[in-house]
Amino acid sequence: MNAFSCNGEFRVGIPAALYFREALEKKPPRQLDMLDYFYPGLLIEEIPSDGQTKREALFDDQSGLIRAVRYHGKLYSGGSSRVSQILGRLTGTAESSPEKERYSAEQIQIRTAKALAGDPSLMSRLFALNLARFRALSPEAADRFSAAFGNYLEALLRREETMTDAERAAALFPMAKEISEALLRFIVYQWNTDTDTGAAAAFTWVMLGSLLRGHAGRLVFVYLSSGDPRVPAEDDRITAEDIAACGSFYEGDDLDSRFPGIEWYCDRCGEHLNDQPGFSDKEPLWHCRLCGYPNPIRLTAIYNCEKEYLLGAPSVDREDFCRALRERTEELREQTEESREKDVSSPENSP
Fold first, then answer.
1. How far out from the chain centre does Cα 148 lie?
2. 8-state DSSP, 225
3. What is the spatial distance between Cα 15 and Cα 152, in angstroms, rounded to a whole number?
4. CA 247, CA 250: separation in Å to the nearest integer?
5. Measured between alpha carbons, how far is 191 from 214 in angstroms, rounded to an integer?
6. Average pLDDT, stretch 51-59?
7. Residue 67: helix, strand or coil by DSSP?
8. pLDDT(269) > 90
9. Which one is predicted more confidently, 78 or 155?
10. Pairing between strand 44-46 and 65-71?
11. Greater pLDDT, 233 or 287
């Protein structure tokens, strides 16, 4: 077993290489083909071609997909430094400046997480694909992979136990402790079933956590460890009906702010931004004082609750937010008038 397999990190390159080297006894493919192999149709869009013509791969900012041609049977990246940097961020193999194309890579993570959270058929396809691969292995190949993957899971668990908050915050794509713990519960539970279905499910969750990192929580709240959707009764997202029945879910007295009553947290390290020196929600961006990440301060970055953000639900409704501000302004005006009337009618102010 290679030494790197004991590195307890959620990085695509580790479990992917384990599968190719231990189960298939093959050299892992290049990054584009590796991602297409494990996440078919989710990250890469193949450009139609004759298969004999080279064309540099590109990242489509609008679709959030990497587009590439197939050259002699393999996806061709060419000399695109941008695509190379994005791939390095996604697979965890990049050695250059960590901020180069980090944003683009995260857009792929977000788009993929939302697609999987919103379409159970996509999730089911990934689980079924890995199950078919596991069932096709010979007993010897399955044993080799099982031993290597088991060691990798032990390393993941050791790392989870010893990782500090500072180490989590410093990661390129930080994963909140509650998300990594939930993922590991899913993985260990399925792995310990000691079935081919459980092994495939455990491996699929590892690959999803490795790819999506901080955005894997969207799937943890939507699916069971088996990959099946949770029953609707377990879905406690705030609905339009809730808002209509109960009114707005955000309010505050600081009406000199752009977004009264909103608590802001860093999208990278989770630090509470409101308490940071000099914080103002009138800025279009706020660079976290802890990790330096530029957080957008805008209406589309506000969610009714943390769970809705993790689920990939839409941000708050603009009309409802504005209505809430008008209602709160009117409430405060009435309270001020009542207070003034009491002051005027109090005995101390009587002639």
1. 27
2. T
3. 8
4. 9
5. 22
6. 91
7. strand
8. no
9. 155
10. parallel
11. 287
Long-range contacts of 308-313 (CB under 8 A, 24+ apart): 308/237, 308/238, 310/179, 310/215, 310/217, 310/218, 310/220, 310/221, 311/117, 311/218, 311/221, 311/222, 311/237, 312/110, 312/113, 312/114, 312/117, 312/118, 312/215, 312/218, 313/237
Q: What angle do CA 120, 243, 311 make, to 5 degrees?
A: 25
- Overall residue count recorded for the chain in this entry: 351
Q: What value, to the nearest 5°, has the Cα angle with vertex 302 and ends 297 and 308?
A: 145
Residue 53 vs residues 70, 78, 92, 296: alpha-carbon distances, Å: 8, 11, 29, 41
State mean pLDDT over 211-215.
91
**In the predicted model, is pLDDT for residue 327 greater than 80?**
no
For every residue of 40-100, DSSP letters joined together read: TTTSEEEPP--SS-----EEETTTTEEEEEEETTEEE-TT-HHHHHHHHHHHT---S-TTT
DSSP state of 232: G
**Which residue has better confidence, 55 or 237?**
55
Indicate if the pLDDT at residue 247 is higher than 90.
no
- Over residues 30-48, mean pLDDT: 93
Distances (CA, A) of 162 to 7, 151, 223, 243: 13, 17, 27, 42
- Mean pLDDT across the chain: 84
Radius of gyration of the chain (CA): 25
Three-class secondary structure of residue 231 per DSSP: coil
Specify the pairing of strand 285-287 against strand 294-296.
antiparallel
Whether pLDDT at 221 is above 90: no
Q: What is the DSSP letter of 150?
A: H
